[in-house]
Specification:
The chain has 71 residues and is an all-alpha fold. It is built from three helices and no strands.
Length: 71
């Protein structure tokens, strides 16, 4: 990721690479399908996270509501 890269592209790229790591950690087979799924998921997840209608859900997922994470 280059310094002058648009922030939204950086976010999408980082999530994309995290999803590849998750794919690998789950032991799923490497294939052309992996790239299609990872591309689709990274783009849609960024859209979900950025949609203001989902603010409460994102606050809960990212623990921005100040609740303890202790179980």
């Amino acid at each position: 990721v280059y310094c002058k890269t648009n922030h939204n592209i950086i976010r999408d790229t980082l999530l994309h690479e995290i999803l590849h790591a998750c794919w690998n950690m789950l032991g799923l087979s490497r294939s052309e399908e992996e790239e299609k799924v990872v591309n689709s998921l990274s783009t849609i997840l960024i859209g979900v996270m950025d949609d203001p209608r989902n603010k409460l859900v994102m606050d809960i997922i990212f623990n921005k509501n100040g609740q303890s994470t202790d179980t």
